[in-house]
Amino acid sequence: MLNFLVILVLSYLTGSFPTSIIVGKLTKGIDVREHGSGNAGGTNAFRVLGWKAGLFVSLVDIAKGTFATLVISRIRFGTLPFENPALLMVLAGIFAIVGHTYTIFAGFKGGKGVATGAGMLIGLFPYALLTCLVIFALTLFSTGLVSLSSITAAVSLPVVLFIFNRFLSVSVDPVLMIVSIFIPFFIIYTHRANIKRLIRGEEKAFEKLKIFRRS
C-alpha cells in the first residue's frame, strides 16, 4: 500500500509544479493569475507572457502528465493493492491532472487540466490524443475560442476511443474507456466560468486564429 500511495503523491506533486507562475515570475516578475483570465494554465500564459513563454508552459504541463503516467506509475519498491499496469497509469495521470488544477504550491489555484490531461493521453493512447488535437485545432481555427476547443476535444474523447475500439480494431483498455467518460465532466467543471462567458457572449477569442470565416 505504501508503494501505491507514493505513486499517487508523487504524481500529484509532479502535476502541482506551477509552471506558468514560475515562468511569469522569472520573465516578467508577475503572477499570471493576477492578469488576463486569472488562470495559471498555458492559454493565459500565451495571453500574458507571449507565445514563447506560453508554448514553454504548455509543453512542460503536457510533460507532467506524461511523466506521471509513464514513469511514476512504474515505481516499484514493495507490494501494491493490485497489479493492473493500465489502472496504475490512469490513476497516476489523474493525480497529475488534479495536482495541476489544484496545485499545493500556489494555494490550490492552478490550471484547468487540459495540457496535463493531454500528456496523460500521450502515455495511455496517443492515437486518441492526435484525433482530439485535430478536433481541438478545427474548433479553435473556426471560433478562436480556446475554452470551447478544449471542451469539445474533451467531450469527443470517449467517442474517439469507442470508434477506435469498435470500428478500427484498435484495442482500448476498459479502464481508459471508463475514465474517458468522466474526463469531460472534469474539464467542463474547470471551465465553468468560461462557459458562463460563452453563454453571455463575453468569452475572449484569439481573433487571428479564426481562419474559417464566412465570406
The succession of helices and strands, N to C, reads: HHHHHHHHHH
Number of domains: 2
User: Quick one: biggest sheet?
Assistant: none
- Cα(first) to Cα(last) distance is 61 Å
The coarse silhouette is: globular
Catalogue the unreliable spans: none
Q: Compute the gyration radius: what is it?
A: 17 Å
Tally the helices. 10
Portion of residues in beta strands equals under 5%
Structural class: mainly alpha
Q: Share of helix among residues?
A: 55-70%
Mean pLDDT figure:
92
Give the tally of β-strands. Answer: 0
Overall description:
The structure is a single chain. With 215 residues, the chain is mainly alpha-helical. It is 68% helix and 0% strand. Helix 2 (19-28) packs antiparallel against helix 4, helix 5 packs parallel to helix 9 and helix 8 (146-167) packs antiparallel against helix 9. The longest helix is centred in the C-terminal third of the chain and has 22 residues, at 146-167. The mean pLDDT is 92.
Question: Helices and strands in order, then pairings?
Answer:
Layout: H1 2-16, H2 19-28, H3 42-49, H4 51-70, H5 85-101, H6 114-124, H7 126-143, H8 146-167, H9 174-190, H10 192-200
Helix pairs in contact: 1-4, 1-5, 2-3, 2-4, 3-4, 4-5, 4-6, 5-6, 5-9, 6-7, 7-8, 8-9
Question: What is this entry, summarized?
Answer:
The chain has 215 residues and is an all-alpha fold. It is built from 10 helices and no strands.
